[in-house]
Amino acid sequence: MSLRPAWLTFRRYAAATTGMTLTLFALGVYTAATGSGLACQAQWPLCSDQLIPALTINPDFIEWFHRVWAMVTGFLILGVAGWSWLGSLDRRTRIAATLAVVILPVQIAVGAITVTIGGLVPGGYTVSTHAAHLIVALGIFTLLGLATMWGGDRPGSARLLRVALGVAVGGILASAVFSRAVPLLTYSPGGQAAFYIAGLSAHLGLVATLVVATEAKEGAVSGLGSSTARTVRRLATGSMAALVVTLLLGRDLVLYTATWQRANLVALALALALAAGAAWVLRGADTAAGRSTPVGGD
């Protein structure tokens, strides 16, 4: 007899873990943007010689809360990998979940270096460690998204592809509102966190688009031709690459001059144009399919 409630499926558990990771991403950005990553007297895992600092909104608490959320999320990621091997899941799901766990220690180590392990690593809070921290986190987030999408028996569909592209386009548009490339709002710590929530949601939508489009190309999705699926996949891949550039430039990885701002704006516009192009191609295919459907009785 299983102790697991019937509603708790692998896909739901993996989706919740992916959501926790997305929140962790935003918390990490907020922590760095407020300078709280330098709190706790540069100690890790202790915080200002305490296991639990004063529970008031201050730099020590923000950094400590980020660490606690990261620890809980880490255990959930371990659970995704364990479930993928113990359950009757396919090989690709197990590989994605296992790789997320394999690179998790790298993320933990880079995070520890970023806040400097007991002051033993000079220059731990630098551009290079921020970049590494972001890239490794994005890798884990992507792998968890793949495990979620692959970890079930529900087949892909043209409708799911439309939803995924809608999330991608909407997420890119929302990220533009908070992006430092578009000076609509002050790029405050809260704005930076919102930018990454929107941008990562768009990234996940593009990952889902690639998954469903690949299945369609292989003939596993009904109602979508292989040629259309191939075009959608290429456009989504280009959009994802441009979006990753904007995510990297959203942090203080370069001296953000007017030139870098223009480069960021170009990358953001390209990501949006390619994602919208993929949605347009899919819409055109749906329209063509509707016109080709014979009327009953003809």
Number of strands: 0
Class by SSE composition: mainly alpha
The radius of gyration computed from the alpha-carbon positions, rounded to a whole number of angstroms, is: 21 Å
User: What's the average pLDDT?
Assistant: 84
The shape is globular
Uncertain parts: 292-298
| DSSP summary: helix tally | 9
Described by strand count, sense and barrel closure, the largest sheet is: none
Portion of residues in beta strands equals under 5%
Structural domain count: 2
How far from one another are the termini?
Answer: 56 Å
Helical content stands at 55-70%
Order of helices and strands: HHHHHHHHH
Description:
- The chain is an all-alpha fold and 298 residues long.
- The chain has 2 domains: 9-153, no CATH class; 156-285, Four Helix Bundle (Hemerythrin (Met), subunit A), CATH 1.20.120.
- 70% of the residues lie in helices and 0% in strands.
- The chain has 9 helices and no strands.
- The protein has helices at 10-33, 59-86, 91-102, 104-114, 127-150, 158-178, 189-217, 226-249, 258-292.
- Helix 1 runs antiparallel to helix 2 (59-86).
- It starts with 9 loop residues before the first helix and ends in a 6-residue tail after the last helix.
- Mean pLDDT is 84; it is low at 292-298.
- The chain crosses the membrane at residues 21-44, 64-86, 98-125, 131-151, 163-182, 194-214, 235-257, 263-282.
- Keywords: Iron, Membrane, Metal-binding, Oxidoreductase, Transmembrane, Transmembrane helix.
- GO terms for molecular function: metal ion binding; oxidoreductase activity.
- This is Cytochrome c oxidase assembly protein subunit 15.
